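Follow-up to my earlier ticket, as requested here are the two runs.
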Amino acid sequence: MNNPQGHVLVVDDEEGIRRLLDRLLSARNYSVSLAGTLPEALEILKSKPIDVVLLDLQLGERKTGLQLLHEVRRHATTVRLPVIILTGLKLEEADEEQIRAEGAYVFYKPIDTEALLVYVDRLVHNRPAS
């Protein structure tokens, strides 16, 4: 891949969703890392510079994307990292407000992939220089 636009971490326990998002983002010239579990995602975040995280809210094994979001916000190197929560659950208004208060965005499944890609583009290109 020549000069990727940015690096996106996709965290979802469903392999089909990871593959779909990988294809869509790669076609848009993004470098993509995939994680199916919370520990995999944390390892990637520690080892690679990431521009945006696409994060499933329900990660299976009683883990939630909110746990990763809280972890991301605790570290100085990732405190401002853009995070997009992907969920098929209808969130209560208070839950959605909590997610937004942590600086994350919410996209509901089924995902409008074009809108998601436009949003990722916007977050990557408007991100302040590190």
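Run two:
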Amino acid sequence: MELDNAASQISKCKELINQYIITALEEHGVVGIVTSHGEIILSLMRRDCLTMSELAALIHKDPSTVTTLVKKLHTFGYVTLTKCDNDKRSVRASLTDKGKALESAFMQISDDLRMQMYKGIDEDDKQVFKQVLQEIMQNLS
């Protein structure tokens, strides 16, 4: 029987990517943010003001997880929270000026990460790789 360690390799890639991002954020002077915060910050950069439910749907995470992550971002001063006028139980999150200032670092880190990931890989192989990853994700969903 042939041993296939593709799942292990994918998991290791995720660990390495997360560490790359955290290190790069620290080099940009951004502390306290982990990769799970990135999806929230990027969503708020694109949509400005979102409820926890809207954020959860956008990033495919449980609303309670999103609420916990957003509260931490609020504690660090990256996000402001306001009650919704039409439903006092619902809270909207938006980026503060400090949160908006992360955009250039996020974009630079993303560009650098892509360059590092695909270094030495030709365009055809890169496209095949992305397609195969997409198919694996569909198979597991």
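The only thing I checked on run two: Residues 6-110 form a domain with the Arc Repressor Mutant, subunit A fold (CATH 1.10.10.10). Let me know what else you need.
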